[in-house]
Amino acid sequence: MDNNDNSIASRTNVFLVIRLLLGVALSLLCFTQLFFTFRGLDKPEAMDQAQIARQIARGEGMTTKNLAPFDVRVRSQESESGLDFNQYQATSYAPLHPMILSAAIRITGYHHFNEKRMVPDQEMVYDGDRVVAAVSTIFFMLALLLSYILLRKMFDEVLAATAVLLMGFSKLLLNFAVSGLAQPMLMCLFIGIVACVYAAIRADLYNKDKHVLIYNILAFILAILMCYTCRISAWCMLGLIVFSALYFRPKGMYAVIGVAMGIVLVLIPTAILLQPGGGLSAAFQQAFYGGFGVGNMERMMRSTDEFGFNVDSSNFFLRLLGATFSQSSTMYEHMGSIIVTPFFLLSLFNRYRNPIVNGIKWLVFSCWICSCAGMALFGETSAMGVCQISTLFTPFFTAYGISLVFIFLARLQISENFVTIRSLTIAAIFLISSGVFLFEFPRELQIGVITSARGIPQYPPYYPNKLNGELHDISNPQDIIVTDQPWAVAWYADRKALWLPTRVSSYTDDLEPVFKRAGQRVQGFLITPTSHSMPKGGVNGVISRAGEFAPLALEGKILQIVPKHNLALAELFNNHGDSQKNARPLANLVSSQGQFPHRNFILGAEMVYYSRDAVKK
């Protein structure tokens, strides 16, 4: 008996040491990412939500300084009195994540822009970016902790520690941790949903119907919070409803509760929130056009044309089903390149002794397959996209994949050396999954430590110091800047910014009248590396990306090669005696004789600001 007690105490001490080492290692890794290797935000959606959060922190509500031509045109058609560009309602994002960010921005004082300016030509990374990234880092660390607690209940200590270790050293997940996006927060909420369903299944086994109802309602509440964090999470909620309908008895009762809660607490409030931008149908059409439609979202939002669905309806559901299951081909990459995650699909054919574990795997599968349908429908294919929610399922895909490996090892009947072989297997899985990250991280850390005083910006295309400093100083807070990176101008320069249209006529014929009716002035055009350095395909890529404003993008590129020549490509695009009085060529906008005749070099020819008025530096 004493030997057993000593053995249990010894194992407990070992597990305590493992927990401590794991917690310290992952915490140090996350904080190292945040304070040493962090290069600033690089996702437009992260900057966009950050500037919305700053507006909330200032007491301006869910308003935005980032304007899209298509959205301005739609709103102008519905507004008889004219638009108020000082209180332009933000409808692109669900409100919960910007609200959380606004609290962090308010606490740290970054809602006072002038008090937190960057030191000119010294600081290269905006500390406001670090505040935003810190929020997602905290949620990521919380997700790791919640994963460990829940997986330990479902499986055992070793499996839980292994899964969390693999997640913590996944390059994709660590990038999400400092991205400023909502995925770490969504992961925490989804783990909470699984924990509630775990408790509901447990209560169902003991015929505690009241507890089953309570835990299901809690799960739906968390799903609703996910929808308020990222709208595509509604597909994950659909998966929860499907699972509840099929698993719990009486069949369908809990699904009816979930549907009712979704309609009352998600659908109706979302329709109200989206009303300024054309309502729920307009938002659905925009997202659908960018996914299963005929074009991409950027092309649509930079245009002022009318867009419809224009989708081939033949075999629609078959094509959608194919696109949904095609998500499985990228599952490995989108779940952090953890080698065991694909094994989850094999675990569906394995019957676990624990009925709760069996039930949870079908919950996860139901939510995942519905989410894949949503991502396929709306065209989310990027591993780091704002609507990429495959990452949420990583803890459970990893855990079930590891469990299959452990089951396979156990069936080899190598009980004498089982612990040793299992440890070697875990080490091999870790090295295969995280080897590339472990190889690259020391060099990144070395560079980060050396440059920690100044930082390394996400350049190209973003150079926060010049936007936060010079552009802010030479521009007027009441005017609009037309630019190819409006999210960056809105966040770093704290200026209203309109996304550069693809056609000159979109600005002159469609947008200028809207601005005049609203009493809104456009001060200038800012061209950045987004137009001339980031597009693939050389000159053709630049022309494709910049559209009819390509001469401005090419002008900057040429001036980098021949800086001594006072070249102005826009001068070539004039009327040439055109008899059409309404013709408004590019030269009428940005040339020595146009509306914006003054050319200001913000970062040499890399960033050129064509202003209406001469500016004093």
Fold and architecture overview:
This protein has 617 residues and is mostly helical. The protein has 25 helices and six strands. A six-stranded mixed beta sheet has the order 1-3-2-4-6-5. A hairpin with a 6-residue loop joins strand 5 (598-601) and strand 6 (608-611). The protein is globular, with a radius of gyration of 27 Å. It starts with a helix and ends in a 6-residue tail after the last strand. Residues 575-583 have low confidence and may be disordered.
* Low-pLDDT sequence parts: 575-583
Oligomer classification = single chain
DSSP helix fraction? 55-70%
Shape: globular
Reading side by side through the largest sheet, how are the strands ordered?
1-3-2-4-6-5
Distance between the first and last residues' Cα: 83 Å
What value does the average pLDDT take?
A: 88
Largest sheet: 6 strands, mixed
- Strand % is under 5%
> What count of helical segments does DSSP give?
25
Summarize the entry for a quick read:
The chain is mainly alpha-helical and about 625 residues long. The protein is built from 25 helices and 6 strands.
Structure characteristics:
globular; six-stranded mixed β-sheet; 25 helices
List the helices and strands and how they pair.
Elements (H helix, E strand, L loop, with lengths): L1 H34 L8 H14 L8 E2 L1 H10 L17 H13 L18 H28 L2 H12 L2 H7 L5 H23 L3 H21 L4 H14 L5 H21 L5 H13 L5 H5 L14 H11 L4 H4 L8 H5 L7 H23 L16 H18 L6 H33 L13 H11 L5 E4 L2 H8 L2 E4 L4 H15 L3 E6 L1 H4 L5 H9 L3 H12 L36 E4 L6 E4 L6
Helix pairs in contact: 1-5, 1-6, 2-4, 2-21, 3-22, 4-5, 5-6, 5-7, 5-8, 6-18, 8-9, 8-17, 9-10, 9-11, 10-11, 10-17, 14-17, 20-21, 24-25
